[in-house]
Design a protein that fits this description.
The structure holds three protein chains of three kinds. Chain A is an alpha+beta fold. Chain A has three helices and five strands, in the order ββαβββαα. In chain A, β1 and β2 form a beta hairpin. The termini of chain B are far apart. Chain B is an alpha+beta fold. In chain B, β2 and β3 form a beta hairpin. Chain B is 44% helix and 17% strand. Chain B has a four-stranded antiparallel beta sheet, with helices on one face. Chain C contains five helices and five strands; from the N terminus they run βαααββααββ. In chain C, α1 runs antiparallel to α2. Chain C has a single domain, classed as Trafficking protein particle complex subunit 3 (Muramoyl-pentapeptide Carboxypeptidase, domain 2), CATH 3.30.1380. Chain C is globular. Classes of the chains: A alpha+beta, B alpha+beta, C alpha+beta. β1 of chain B pairs antiparallel with β1 of chain C, so a sheet runs across the interface. Chain B: InterPro entries: Bet3, NO_sig/Golgi_transp_ligand-bd, TRAPP_component. Chain B: This is Trafficking protein particle complex subunit. Chain B: Pfam families: TRAPP (PF04051). Chain B: May play a role in vesicular transport from endoplasmic reticulum to Golgi.
Chain lengths: 169, 186, 172
């Protein structure tokens, strides 16, 4: 059993799978589809304006979740395509890989979605995403100046995030 | 397979940063007293305490989920148990129990025998009708709403009103699935 | 060791108390919100200092009482002492906590990435909200000292976060 807690962010960060500058960008959405945070480290190509970009990413996840649940051979109670699900309901994917990038995805029961886009050869990022969720709790949810549901403007969070992401990808 | 949620909050409570409960209890008491002075109507104080609790609940849910490692809250029964056993322990250091399930599993009671909010509290007669701990019902309602469960939370028993324990009834109204938030398709 | 609760309990209660008074009750009257928040702190400080001094002899002078606040009282609340105490020997004391717990998680984005004018207003807002959070600890100190028979005024300076200096001016 693993517990997260303590004054410092714990557990200690998972062992890096590779180090360098391989993270492209990250998104955090809340349960209403609001993009709380977009952070970019290495993204040479922008084809859309930020709003369209966020919307496309959210739509991609939404459809993919619905598709993966629909194709689940192990469960009898599958929703119809496009029928909204509860966060955590049914099966959920945690990453996909193309020849040029890897997208890792985590969704909490409270509907917080964390998406990290990295180099295609990056390893399993499920534990690192949990760690990022812990950073979110410590620096965003517990920041008295942060209003839930609004976009994240926390220097401490950004600093901790940048540093951590650099160590994992 | 989702990792199993911890059965008790003891280990988590032992690992989190803790503070002197006196400070918390007296601060809560001072807030209630100030609200009584400012709002005059006891009913209005109940309402504001519930609203404050709700706002706290929607913030605390993520800490609860992150530290308890709970990765899904789809089943109401399971969720009520984990909130009572892990949630109360993790934040208040006390254990709550879940009882009085109705037949279709949508309504239950959370019972608290020990409640740090009320140490040193005695209600004067002028506070009749006050639900002193109403912030708790708000926290539960807010936290559950963030995991898609719309609930109604009401006090059944209250030691400050002469009962032998604190009992909150939690009734599931509906589970709200995630909606696709963007309407226009371009 | 007395009873304890998770730090998040008190943190989230304070966050919500400040937001209730500043955003819901007195959205357009910050000075009224400030007065209420300070009053809540005052009650808490008064009661706590009563409890913590029950078995003690009376303090012989102001400095003794201030030292009690810096050491025993602060340790009960924050598990650490005040880091630095200064006085002008004419009734003003400056109590500095180098890493004041209730400020450690407060952070705002200082980088002016987006529209500059909007940013300045948000930052000014943030500064105002930040200072709202300090009326509570100021009230605690004033309440505690007043319980010890020392009427005073308390203000806070946060020009170098997360350090916080509380300025106590004893009323002659």
């Amino acid at each position: 059993m693993q517990f997260f807690g303590g004054s410092e962010i714990s557990p200690s960060p998972p062992v890096p799978t590779a180090t360098g500058n391989n993270a492209h960008m990250m998104y955090v959405f809340n349960r209403n589809g609001v993009c709380l945070l977009y952070r970019e480290w290495n993204r040479p190509l922008h084809t859309l304006n930020p709003q369209q970009d966020h919307k496309l990413m959210f739509g991609l996840l939404f459809s993919l979740k619905s598709l993966t649940a629909k194709m689940d051979p192990t469960s009898a109670d599958k929703g119809n395509l496009g029928v909204p699900q509860l966060p955590g309901q049914g099966c959920s994917f945690h990453s996909f890989r193309t020849n040029t990038y890897k997208l890792s995805f985590m969704e909490t029961p409270s509907g917080i979605k964390i998406i990290l886009v990295t180099h295609p050869r990056t390893g399993d990022l499920r534990e690192p995403l949990k760690y990022i969720y812990n950073l979110y709790v410590e620096y965003v949810a517990k920041n008295p100046l942060y209003t839930p549901g609004t976009s994240i403007r926390c220097e401490l969070f950004n600093t901790a995030l940048d540093q951590y992401v650099r160590s994992i990808a | 397979m989702a990792p199993a949620a911890p059965r008790s909050g003891d280990a988590i409570f032992a690992s989190v940063e803790r503070v002197n409960a006196e400070l918390f209890t007296l601060t809560y008491g001072a807030i209630v007293r100030q609200l009584l002075t400012d709002l005059e109507e006891v009913e209005e104080v109940n309402k504001q305490l519930d609203q404050m609790g709700y706002n706290i609940g929607i913030r605390l849910i993520d800490e609860f989920l992150a530290k308890s490692n709970v990765s899904r809250c789809v089943d109401f029964k399971e969720t009520a148990e984990v909130i009572a056993k892990v949630g109360f322990k993790m934040f208040l250091g006390v254990t709550a129990s879940v009882t009085n399930w109705d037949a279709d599993g949508t309504c239950c009671s959370i019972v608290l025998e020990d409640n740090p909010l009320v140490d040193f509290v005695e209600l004067p007669d002028t506070c009749q009708g006050l639900y002193y701990c109403n912030i708790l019902s708000g926290v539960i309602r807010g936290a559950l709403e963030m995991v898609s469960m719309k609930t109604e939370v009401t006090w059944i028993r209250d030691v400050l009103r002469g009962d032998d324990a604190y009992e909150l009834q939690v009734k599931l109204l509906k589970q709200v699935p995630e909606e696709y938030p963007y309407k226009d398709d371009e | 060791m007395g009873r304890e609760v998770s730090e998040s309990c008190i943190d989230s209660l304070l966050t919500e108390m400040v937001s209730t008074y500043c955003n819901r009750f007195y959205a357009n009257k910050p000075e009224l919100a400030a007065r209420r928040i300070e009053a809540i702190g005052y009650q808490v400080g008064h009661q706590l200092s009563e409890r913590y001094t029950m078995d003690r002899p009376r303090f012989s002078d102001h400095l003794e009482a201030i030292k009690f606040i810096c050491k025993d009282f602060w340790s009960e609340l924050f598990k650490k002492q005040i880091d630095n105490l200064k006085t002008n020997h004419r009734g003003t004391f400056v109590l500095q906590d180098n890493r004041f717990r209730w400020l450690t998680r407060m952070s705002i984005d200082q980088s002016p990435e987006n529209g500059a004018s909007e940013d300045t207003s948000i930052m000014a807002d943030n500064k105002a909200v930040q200072s709202m959070h300090l009326y509570f600890p100021c009230g605690i100190i004033r309440g505690a000292l007043s319980n010890l028979g020392i009427p005073c005024a308390v203000s806070a300076d946060i020009s170098n976060l997360p350090a916080c200096s509380f300025v106590v001016r004893i009323k002659a």
